[in-house]
Amino acid sequence: MKNVIGLPARGENFYQRTREIEKVIQSLSNGNNIQITAPRRIGKTSIL
């Protein structure tokens, strides 16, 4: 996996976070707001 600095990970560089993405979709579908917090360079932007 390549470490691309400054851009969201896409394609083969994106580590599948299926469970997290399902939780985000479910929360937003129910009309809830979400907040994604984590240390920098952990993949928050890529999930969005």
TrEMBL record:
InterPro entries: P-loop_NTPase (IPR027417). It comes from Chitinophaga niastensis. Gene3D superfamilies: P-loop containing nucleotide triphosphate hydrolases. It comes from the Bacteria. This is Uncharacterized protein.
